[in-house]
Specification:
Elements (H helix, E strand, L loop, with lengths): L6 E3 L2 H8 L5 E10 L2 E13 L4 E7 L7 H14 L4 E8 L2 E15 L4 E12 L6 E9 L4 E4 L7 E3 L9 H12 L4 H12 L1 E3 H11 L3 H9 L3 E7 L6 E7 L8 E3 H14 L5 H16 L12
Antiparallel strand pairs: 1-5, 2-3, 3-4, 5-6, 6-7, 7-8, 8-9, 8-10, 11-14, 12-13
Helix pairs in contact: 1-2, 2-3, 7-8
Length: 304
């Protein structure tokens, strides 16, 4: 099991110290062996992870290579200029790096829903073109400190590295901070509708089995709702039969709200073990789909 260290930072000095530990990359000429003669590859260059000693990707010559350190330090410096107190958790996985920023004293309260959220931003950068430069609204539910990543929002930004707007990275960063702070209108609508939307627990199991095909992830999510997963393997065919058991006999007909189901997923993604930062990011998209989609419209498998 690979451990992915998380660097917890509360000052710009701590951020700059943490980002020195992240991988660095370089953009170098590409060459081709033409019958023993090395020739330059025109119009393309190569991204090379110099920290790991590995080739990452071929890119167009006008590609803007943004170092993880440059991106995250730039945000920390901009937050300091804007006099915004923050906490930043930094981690990397492969050629990607992630930074989760939480703003201190910038909470959102929905009194009618009895919910409160810490606002923030998730930053993502990659050296292998697997993502662009991401700046995504991030919320943390105060009741259980579950992290919530909201990408389907008009303040979400994903910019390809060859975009001209990245030529002035500092200007780009300050604009993104100003755009994202305060973008919570849709969140209240989604939370409100998901609290009111509920279905039988058996149908919830079908939805989770459709979203998460690996049984180990299903088990972790459903146990947070009081549901056990039973797996029986046929010795002859090696096929697995999966069934679900509601653990409380007194409430066998209990319904589960979409909000409860969503929070079971985000709780697993926040506190579960054996989840890489890359998988966590993908699974947040599944959770987000559940948050904004009525249960009647969610896909379910025929059997469970």
């Amino acid at each position: 099991m690979i451990n992915y260290p998380v660097y917890e930072c509360k000052t710009i000095e701590q951020v700059k110290d943490a980002t020195t530990k992240l991988d660095k990359a370089s953009m170098l000429p590409l060459k081709i062996d033409d019958g023993g003669v090395l020739k330059d590859v025109e119009k393309f260059k190569g991204i090379y992870n110099i920290s790991k000693g590995k080739f990452c990707s071929a890119v167009v010559s006008h590609y803007n290579l943004i170092q993880h350190k440059e991106y995250f330090d730039g945000f920390a410096e901009a937050l300091k200029r804007l006099n915004l107190k923050f906490k930043m958790d930094i981690k990397q996985c492969g050629n990607k790096a992630f930074a989760d920023i939480s703003f201190i004293n910038k909470n959102i309260k929905f009194d009618k829903l009895n919910e409160e959220f810490i606002t923030g931003i998730r930053l993502i950068n990659s050296y292998d073109k697997s993502t662009g430069l991401h700046a995504v609204p991030r919320f943390t539910r105060l009741a259980c400190t579950n992290g919530m990543i909201i990408t389907r929002n008009d303040k979400t930004l994903s910019v390809k590295h060859h975009s001209k707007i990245l030529e002035d990275i500092q200007r780009f960063i300050e604009k993104r901070i100003n755009d994202i702070i305060g973008c919570n209108g849709e969140l209240q609508v989604w939370v409100s509708s998901s609290i009111k939307d509920s279905i039988e627990w058996e149908t919830c199991c079908k939805i989770i089995s459709k979203l998460f095909t690996q049984i180990k992830h299903r088990e972790e999510i459903l146990k947070r709702l009081g549901i056990s997963v039973i797996v029986v393997k046929d010795k002859k065919t090696n096929k697995k039969a999966v069934s679900y058991v509601w653990n409380d006999d007194k409430q066998k007909k209990k319904k589960i709200s979409r909000w409860e189901l969503y929070n079971a997923i985000t709780n697993y993604l926040t506190y579960g073990e054996h989840i890489t930062p890359h998988i966590e990011n993908i699974f947040h998209r599944y959770a987000e789909k559940l948050l904004i989609t009525p249960l009647i419209e969610m896909p379910i498998t025929v059997g469970i």
